[in-house]
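JOB MANIFEST
job_type = single_chain_structure
chain_count = 1
residues = 123
[input]
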Amino acid sequence: QVQLVESGGGLVQTGGSLRLSCAAAGRTFNDYAAGWFRQAPGKDREFVASINWSGTFTYYPDSAKGRFTISRDNAKNTVYLQMNSLKPEDTAVYYCNTGKTGSARPFVSGGSWGQGTQVTVSS
């Protein structure tokens, strides 16, 4: 249906910022919600943020609220995650995915998982 490629990760110090991108190949992405997840070594994949199909609603868990901002540019088939005030506990591989529906809450992943992009926050 749609193939997603994450990019923008890197090494940053505590308190720094990164902007992740999720680029979609194909034209079906804009009909669905999108979400960001992360997975640290030895841990389960964790929900980070979601956005509805049109970009008018967003949802965050407490761990990301106030620090992370999800956005999308449907004309470019791209979803972004702006991460500010980064902490060492944010270190993980970050993934994006499409939802099964256009709703951001609850967000249920419906697409395949890509390779992710590594985010490392040093103290």
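[summary]
The beta strands are 3-7, 10-13, 18-25, 34-39, 46-51, 58-59, 68-73, 78-83, 92-98, 117-122.
The longest strand covers residues 18-25.
exit_status = 0
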